[in-house]
């Protein structure tokens, strides 16, 4: 089901990112289309920044393992903290519907009103469930969603549409109706509660916040984040802040995930034959790993090498195109 997020696949990407970071400290940005000309990333066609949103990011890799931003929802607006996640598409927030398993106190939960429920036959419900279809018995049934995580955590809820208050980089505030999940049944198998009240879905899928902003023709389909090793950073939606001198890599258009073009593992400067790897970029994954076969292959190489230089093992991934 589309809203399910496979941590197993997605976490593969972080290793790629960490190796990548050697060249691009802490920054990732993705666009649905390749710029034709690298110089176009310097373009500032309008007077000042006007069609991007910039959010300060809090959190760190260790000890927290999360990065999050704050967003205001509803009228009057209420602020919630969201785990930023380029590996999933549906945004959700802990919701007093009432809730089982929510980790935030009741007055810090999102309180849904009846009129914001998305009906099962509404196109937004179809988008959330794509490529499957929502199971509607009656047209005015509510639109349910479920997200299962590979770590056996899960989130159940109902799809709603409510106003988000977002500030453009030029300072103007905009109130936009966005579709997201009101999560009222949470299971978290981990020993610690996640610090945020919800997850901000930033993947390539149509249900993601980025795609929704794009559909209002407000921002271009570009997102980027810079995360500091010391904690904190920023996230932007829109193309005003793309740093110059970026190296661009095609991202698979058919995938909801930001999937790299096929890569090969290089070890000690040499190709290893471990290739055609597709790597997912997922800011919502706390750690990075290879799939089993690749892991085994890399481990064998490392073990052989460790006999010679015990402490200095370096391997790199290179793109083949
Ligand atoms: C800021 O940008 C938005 C979106 O392009 C525009 O609608 C708004 O008028 C701008 N505000 C100012 C103060 O320029």
Automatic annotation (TrEMBL):
Q: Decide whether keyword Hydrolase is in the record.
A: yes
Q: Name one Pfam family in it.
A: TAXi_N
Keywords attached to this Swiss-Prot or TrEMBL record, sorted alphabetically, are:
Aspartyl protease, Hydrolase, Protease, Signal
Q: What InterPro entries does the entry give?
A: Aspartic_peptidase_A1 (IPR001461), Aspartic_peptidase_AS (IPR001969), PEPTIDASE_A1 (IPR033121), Peptidase_aspartic_dom_sf (IPR021109), TAXi_N (IPR032861)
**What's the domain of life for this entry?**
Eukaryota
Gene Ontology molecular function: aspartic-type endopeptidase activity
First and last residue of the signal peptide = 1-29
What name does this protein carry? Peptidase A1 domain-containing protein
Where does the Peptidase A1 domain start and stop, copy by copy?
67-321
Q: Which organism is it from?
A: Gossypium raimondii
Do the record's keywords include Protease? Answer: yes
What the entry lists under PROSITE patterns is as follows:
ASP_PROTEASE (PS00141), PEPTIDASE_A1 (PS51767)
Tell me the protein family, please: Belongs to the peptidase A1 family.
- Which GO terms fall under biological process for this protein? proteolysis
């Amino acid at each position: 089901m589309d809203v399910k997020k496979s941590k197993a696949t997605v976490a593969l990407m972080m290793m790629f990112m960490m190796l990548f970071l050697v060249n691009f400290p802490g920054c990732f940005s993705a666009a649905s289309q390749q710029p034709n000309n690298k110089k176009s990333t310097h373009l500032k066609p309008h007077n000042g920044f006007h069609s991007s949103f910039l959010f300060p990011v809090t959190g760190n890799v260790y000890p927290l393992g999360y990065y999050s931003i704050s967003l205001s929802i509803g009228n009057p607006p209420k602020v919630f903290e969201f785990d930023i996640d380029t590996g999933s598409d549906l945004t959700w927030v802990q919701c007093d519907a009432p809730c089982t398993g929510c980790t935030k106190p009741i007055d810090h939960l999102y309180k849904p009103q009846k009129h914001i429920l998305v009906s099962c036959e509404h196109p937004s419900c179809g988008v959330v469930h794509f490529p499957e279809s929502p199971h509607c018995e009656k047209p005015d049934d509510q639109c349910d969603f479920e997200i299962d995580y590979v770590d056996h955590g899960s989130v159940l809820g109902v799809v709603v549409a409510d106003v988000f208050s977002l500030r453009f980089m030029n300072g103007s505030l905009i109130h936009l109706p966005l579709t997201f999940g009101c999560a009222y049944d949470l299971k978290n198998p981990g020993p610690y509660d996640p610090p945020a009240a919800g997850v901000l879905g930033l993947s390539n899928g149509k249900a993601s916040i980025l795609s929704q902003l794009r559909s209002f023709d407000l921002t271009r389909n570009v997102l980027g984040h810079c995360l500091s090793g010391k904690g904190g950073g920023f996230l932007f939606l829109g193309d005003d802040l793309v740093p110059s001198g970026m190296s661009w890599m095609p991202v698979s258009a058919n995938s909801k995930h930001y999937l790299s073009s096929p890569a090969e593992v290089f070890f000690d400067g040499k190709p290893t034959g471990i290739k055609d790897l597709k790597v997912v970029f997922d800011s919502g994954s706390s750690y990075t790993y290879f799939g089993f076969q690749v892991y085994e292959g890399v481990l064998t190489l490392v073990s052989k090498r460790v006999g010679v230089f015990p402490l200095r093992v370096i391997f790199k991934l290179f793109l083949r195109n």
